[in-house]
ABC-F family ATPase
Amino acid sequence: TGSISIDPNERMSSLNQDHFAFEDFTVMDTVIQGHKELYQVMKEKDALYAKPDFGDEDGVKAAELESKFAELDGWNAEADAAKLLQSLGIPEEEHQMMMKDLPESEKVKVLLAQALFGNPDILLLDEPTNGLDVHTVEWLE
């Protein structure tokens, strides 16, 4: 145990060890959750635009969220996540599947893509090659 100090402008990511933590999410959403701030902005935007009584105050909030979304390169999030997934051997037809429907070996790859998503400044990987095939290990290296 110990502590880690990082610059407030740096983003840290780690490989999630719980292969079942994202069972109720799609593969794509699971990867994008690797950039917590971006995913939160996306969800806030979705909730705001879904409001039946969208008012002026909501419009101001929406503008702020859209600005933050653009700043975080949100417009490229799905394309970037798809590229990562394909690089790790997850075919495009599986990107919208639910995590619970993937075999264990592919869940590991999705969680690795999640850790790598958004090019974090600091990346913590504990036994990142467990459960990976040779091709994926070579790609990771």
About this structure: The chain has one domain: 24-122+130-140. The mean pLDDT is 89.
